[in-house]
Amino acid sequence: MPMGVSTSRPENGVAVVTADFPPVNALPVTGWFDLAHAVRSAGHDPEVRCVVLAAEGRGFNAGVDIKEIRAEGGGALIGANRGCFEAFAAVYECEVPVVAAVQGFCLGGGIGLVGNADTVVASEDAVFGLPELDRGALGAATHLARLVPPHLMRALYFTSRTAIAAELHAHGSVWRVVPRDALRAAALELAREIAAKDGGLLRLAKAAINGIDPVDVRRSYRFEQGFTFEAQLGGTAARVRDAFGKENA
């Protein structure tokens, strides 16, 4: 499989959109837009009744490519924010249900993707968190709040700590926790069950459920992004980002 974003059709009615950006699936700006396009395209296909969002490698997603932002500055930051916004929205607005298959680490932008998915299957080694405060950024609390209760969300956000898959399963946001080598099969099993329903009715159901959500995830996340730019303009973001990783150098 070539690096980047790819789409496969392993069985009738199911599309699998896979991200592969070694070594840790920290997506560059173009990667976020490619992912958004792939998810939207799969959802537009009348033959698709469920989308599985997956990733190759050690972990599901490590967020944005900090090295790219360091190298290119404000333009890359704007691109990353726009790309994340589009990718998160594409998952939420996908016309059919989206199953996230999460292994290893799911951090930063990964939380935005998974929090906007319709259901989540995770491997036993999966961990979820927002290390944004350690990386000079803010955002995706909107999506973490869809995975854990409010006070836990705040504790995880302020400490940059992670929660394991079993904890999220206990909170009801992860459907199943399985061994890593069983992850893809478990995600496809759930997708197959969903895809067995009538495609037209599934699309109506997705629109109806989104319509009764108490939080407008697009507006909420966009509000958060404004504080990322405030931190950038004030110099706080660059100071924290420049120190990121150097303590272990």
From TrEMBL:
Keywords: Lipid metabolism, Lyase. It comes from the Bacteria. The keyword Lyase applies. The keyword Lipid metabolism applies. Belongs to the enoyl-CoA hydratase/isomerase family. PANTHER family: (7AS)-7A-METHYL-1,5-DIOXO-2,3,5,6,7,7A-HEXAHYDRO-1H-INDENE-CARBOXYL-COA HYDROLASE, ENOYL-COA HYDRATASE-RELATED. This is Enoyl-CoA hydratase family protein.
